[in-house]
Structure prediction request, 46 residues.
Amino acid sequence: MDHAGLSRRAAADQLGHANTSMTTDVYVGRKVAATGAAAVLEVLAP
Prediction:
C-alpha cells in the first residue's frame, strides 16, 4: 500500500488499525532483505 501511494490513514483503515503509528511501525518503509520467511509461510498455508 505504501509503494502504491496510499496514505497512511487509508492503509490503517483498510488494515483495521486505530492508529496510523501501528501501520507505520509494522508495514511502512521496512527495508528488509529477503529472509525466506515467505517461502516457509507458503508451505504452511492450507
Observations:
- The first helix runs from residue 8 to 15.
- The radius of gyration is 13 Å.
